[in-house]
Structure formats: C-alpha cells, structure tokens
Amino acid sequence: MECAAREITGGRYVRLLSFVVQAILLLAVEPLLAQVRLSDDRPSLDVAALEAAGLKVYRSRHLVLVSDAPTEQCQELPALVDRFYPALQQTLGPLSPAADGAEFQVTGYLMDARERFQQAGVLPDGEFVIRHGRHLGYQFWMNNQPSDYYRRHLLLHELVHCYLMCEHGMRDIPPLWYTEGVAEMLATHRLQPLQFGILPDQLTGFEGWGRIAELRRRPVEAGGGVAEGVLLGDVLNPASRIFLSDLRYAQGWGLVWLLRNHPELQRPFAGLFKVRTRAQFDAATAGISREQLQRLGVVWQLMLDSWEEGFDPERSFPPLAPEWRLWSEDSARPQQVQVQAEQGWQPSGYWFDVETRIRLSAGGRSVLQPAGENGARAWESEPAGITIDYAQGRPLGELQAVLVQRKPSVLPERISVGAGSELRVSAGSELWLRINDFEGQRRGNSGAYQVRLQSVSDR
User: Origin, by domain of life (predicted)?
Assistant: First the structure.
C-alpha cells in the first residue's frame, strides 16, 4: 500500500510538473511550439491490475491498446496502426520531435463494457461523454463497434486526432469540418491491398461507415428553404460548433475528400493538409478567392448528387471553372450542346441572369458499358433512356438536367429531360446536363446526345 501511494503521488507530481513546463512554454516560448511537441501525458499502466479488471493490453510501436473486447477483434489493431503511421506522415507532414526524443505513441481504450474501465480507473474523472470515440492528449477512448471495418475505421480516426493535436493541444484548433473531415478521409481504408484515404468502391466490406449514404439522403426542407447544414456555406460556417450527427461527419469527409482529389482544387488547397492550428489554417486558405469559393459551392451541389461507391474521379468530377455565356446574349436563335456518355455532370455553357423558360430537345445515341464485366453486353440508348436497369431510380441513358444556383438557397433537383422538356430557369442559375449512369461505370461508355436549347415565350 505504501509503495502504491508513493507511485500515485509521484505520478501526480510528474503530471503537475509537466503541466507547469507546458504552461511556461505556451506563455513565454511560443516559437518552440513549432519545434517540440507536447509532452506525453499518459499515465503508466498497471497491467496486472488491468487484467484483474478483465482488460487486456496489446502493444506495437505506435499504439498501446487496452480492451475488454474479444482477442480476435483486437490483436491485429496495433500492427495496423504501425502500417497507418507512414500515411499520416506523408499526408499531414511529419511531427515535431518530442523533447525527450521519444517516438509518437498513443494509448487507446476499446470498450465493450464501460464500467470495467471506470472501475480500473482509466477513464477521465467526471462525466466524460463518448458518442463513438473521443481523444484527449495522447489517449483516446472508443466504444466497440459491431462491424470489423468500422471498429478499425474509428480507431484510425481517433489516432489522426491525437496526431494532429499533439503539437499544440486543443488550443486554437482548425475548424471542426476540417479536423473531423481529415480524420474521416484518412481512416477510410481497405485491407487488400492495404490503402488509406480511399473512396469505397462497394458497400460490402465497409459496414458501419455510411458517409456517402448520409450525403445522398435528401434532407427534409422546411419553409421553402433547404435544411440547415447541407449547402457549402453551412458546412463551412455551421450554426453549431458541436458535431452530434452522422451527417456532419459525412459533410466533413466529403469536403476534405473533394479538396484533396478534384484536380482543379488540389493546388489552391494543397497547404490545407499540413496545418495544426487555426492560425495556420487561415494562412493556408488566405489565397483562396471569393470566386474560387463560389465555384467550389457549385461543384459541392453537383457532388451531392454524384457521390456513390466506386465514383470515377477521372470521368465524374464536375469541372470547376468551365466557360459560361449569358443566355440572353445567344437566345435569339436555338443553340446546340453536346453531352458525352463517358462524363458525369457537364456544363451546358449557359447561365441565366433572369428567370427564363427554355425548351430542350435531344437526339443521338449513347453506348453504356457495364464496368468490370468483360464480355458483358453494352446497352445502346437514346435520350429517353432504357429500362433494362436504373441508376438513382431513373432509366440508364436518360438525358438529365440540373439547375445550379450560383448563390444557392435550395439544393438543385435532377430533372428528367428525355427526348425533350421545358424548364423554368430561375435567375442566377447554371444549366448542367448528363446521360444517366452509375458514376463508377462510365469507363467504356461512348457516344453523345445533341441537345437543342431554345427560349420559350410565356405567351
């Protein structure tokens, strides 16, 4: 007992001394924050006491895992973290060294029965709310998950937070859409072959994740306006700073993934993936123009209708800055637009500064080739589409339109055009067109539709 008391007292003294040293650094030696990361704040573990409480300890170079979950759910996780660590360094930049030269390592608690961890004294004091997972310094706690994939995903997600916060702590952190989005993006993985930061190509094997489904779910609109938090402005500047819904995590993931992968967004947002503080975040985004943000807002609206497992970045990303003409300048005579089968949403080339009625008439033929099916029959379609299969609830090959507002107040709706249709275009809208298909199956498509645009009199 006396020995144990000395260990507790000594541990408290060490933690108090560490806190004082860090406070001095914060107040008086600010430049050192960029050179030395915060001291490791983890308490020492009494393995015998943990095992007596029903908890088992698993170790690797970068992770100490304490869990009461079955061994088969835990034993591979530390090794996975060690293989994940190079991806962290490559994407987020290397960490500042520790003052004592120690390697970066965190302790994670994977919990089936929270009361065991409380009894073992390894939960923070007071009410410590854990919805799925939560980090604090060089430690994180997470509830066990029913699927193997999401258990791994959540563990990697919390590890990213520890990595990002170990240099500056929770002081002056970047916006949550960024920190949560980066953690979500990097943690999305597959085991064979081992890859991190991916976009899933199927539902099977990613059980429990569901970010694409959240983004694609049409929110309930109220009062003629769009549901809060869906448009880009609400994602960047949310009404609440607390992430309480899966949709918020999905939006963070979607925006970070988009900025990292869209070829026209990679360069202006390249510095975003090396930041640790809000000041660094503001500096990295200071050169982003208002026009670039507006164009990002347009692409965001189109992406909400395009994300799906297997999304093809080469063929399905909407272009960021296509050339636009004002419809009123060319409306005196019909205009012709070509829509390619191998591309996703394509700009018509026209935007409208006043409310306008136009007629779309389409002809031509497209050939749709199912992806990954060697020898599979390719389907030929005209603008009305074919009912042999459906994508997003509409026939394959159907000509579709969407009217995207440059200053959005509502989300755009897909419009089935087929061989022809009349549209009432609201002021400030751009007209985008596509041939309906699964966004992961456009490789191998060919052909195009010729679309005729003509103003329609209200008389």
Answer: Bacteria
Please determine, for residue 270, whether its predicted confidence score (pLDDT) is greater than 60.
Answer: yes
DSSP helix/strand/coil, 401: strand
The full length of the chain comes to 459
The angle subtended at Cα 215 by Cα 210 and Cα 221, nearest 5°, is: 130
Query: CA nearest 199: which of 260, 147, 155?
Result: 260
Give every CB contact of residue 339 below 8 A, 6+ residues apart in sequence.
Answer: 346, 362, 399, 433, 434, 435, 448, 449, 451
Beta bridge pairs of residue 98: 37
CA distance 425 to 439: 26
CA distance 105 to 166: 10
Gap between the Cα atoms of 39 and 15, Å rounded: 10
**Residue 16: φ, ψ to 5°:** -65, -45
Alpha-carbon span 56 to 45, nearest angstrom = 11
Q: What is the pLDDT of residues 316-363, one digit of tens each?
A: 999 999 999 999 888 889 999 999 999 999 999 999 999 999 999 999
pLDDT interval class at 181 (50, 70, 90): very high
What is the torsional sign of CA 319, 323, 329, 334?
negative
Reported as type and span, the H/E element at residue 349 is strand 346-352
What pLDDT shows up at residue 30? 39
| Residue recorded with tokens 């060490």 | 14
Handedness of CA 425, 427, 432, 437 (dihedral sign): negative
Contacts of 124 (CB under 8 A, 6+ apart): 136
- How much is the pLDDT for 23? 38
- Helix axis angle for 290-303 and 246-261, nearest 10°, is 120
Between CA 160 and CA 156 the distance in angstroms is 6
Report the pLDDT value the prediction gives residue 311, as an integer from 0 to 100: 95
What is the value of pTM for the model shown? Answer: 0.88
Instruction: Work out the number of other CB atoms within 10 angstroms of the CB of residue 224.
Output: 7
CATH number of 322-455: 2.60.120.430
Q: What is the CATH number of domain 36-171?
A: 3.40.30.160
176 touches 237 (CB < 8 A): no
Prior bond to 193 cis, omega within 30?
Answer: yes
Token pair for 92: 């987020």
Q: Which is it for strands 346-352 and 325-326: parallel, antiparallel or unpaired?
A: parallel
Cα–Cα distance between 62 and 75 in angstroms, integer? 14
281-292 pLDDT tens trace: 999 999 999 999
Calpha distance 312→234 (Å, rounded): 27
